[in-house]
Amino acid sequence: MDVLNLELAGARQSVKRAETSLNHAKEMLDEDCGVGINLALCSRIRSEQKRVAEARKRLMKIARASLP
C-alpha cells in the first residue's frame, strides 16, 4: 500500500507541475513580446496542455487501481 501511496503522490505532483508550467506560459503570452515569441509560446502551451492531460490520465489510472 505504501508503494501505491508513493505513486499517487508522484502523479499528483506531476499534475501540479504541469499545471503550473501551463499557467506560466499563458501568463507570458499575455505580455506583449512580439509575434515570434507568441508563436513559440502557443506551441509551448499546446505541449503543456498535452502534458497536463497525460499526467491527469496517469493519476486517474493509479487512483482507480487503488480502489478495493
Explain this structure:
By secondary structure, the protein is mainly α. It has one domain (2-66). Helices cover 90% and strands 0% of the residues. The protein is elongated and about 50 Å long. The mean pLDDT is 90.
Sketch the topology as an H/E string, one letter per element: HH
Structural class: mainly alpha
Query: How much strand content do the residues show?
Result: under 5%
| Strand runs, count | 0
Helical content class: over 70%
Question: How would you briefly describe this protein structure?
Answer:
With 68 residues, the protein is mostly helical. It is built from 2 helices and no strands. The mean pLDDT is 90.
Features:
about 70 residues, mainly alpha, 2 helices, about 0% strand, elongated, coiled coil
Set down the secondary structure blueprint:
Layout: H1 2-30, H2 35-66
Helix pairs in contact: 1-2
Keywords: Coiled coil
Coiled coil: 1-65
